[in-house]
Write a structure and sequence with these properties.
five-stranded mixed sheet; 135 residues; single chain; alpha+beta; 5 strands
């Protein structure tokens, strides 16, 4: 698979302020190849993304395609995997379409999944876990 790209274009886009990049691309009828390179590269090595979100931050995590929910939780912290209870899951595309977590829940698209759930690319996950006290 070959993905044509311009190294000089990509370098100049990286050096531009973020708010000017899209304007420059539109004015010059250009498109960055980086998103395609990243997606193709991740697919080639069987990696996917999932997200965790809190009130003031969103984090993106990478895992192997086919990973179960406890293993995904373990990428955040080993205690999450060890004490895994369940994963509350919504799809990124549905969250984007509906706008809020509450709207996703109201539409019945917010799911509670167990240890056999295979994480999908773009899942937004809240992990529930419990690790007992050490002795």
């Amino acid at each position: 698979l070959m993905i044509p790209y311009s190294g000089s274009l990509e370098a100049s886009l990286i050096d531009m302020p973020e708010d000017e990049v899209q304007k420059y691309l539109d004015e010059n009828k250009l498109q960055s190849a980086l998103p395609k390179i990243i997606k193709t590269g991740f697919a080639a090595i069987h990696l996917i993304y999932f997200f965790t979100a809190g009130p003031d931050e969103v984090k993106c995590w990478q895992i192997r395609e086919g990973s179960k929910a406890p293993q995904a939780a373990g990428t955040i912290h080993t205690d999450f995997e060890r004490g895994f209870i369940c994963a509350e899951v919504m799809k990124f595309d549905e969250l984007k379409e509906l706008g809020t977590e509450q709207a996703v829940k109201a539409a019945g698209k917010y799911k509670q999944e167990g240890k056999n759930y295979t994480v999908c690319d773009g899942d937004v996950i809240y992990f529930k876990f419990n690790v007992g006290r050490g002795k």
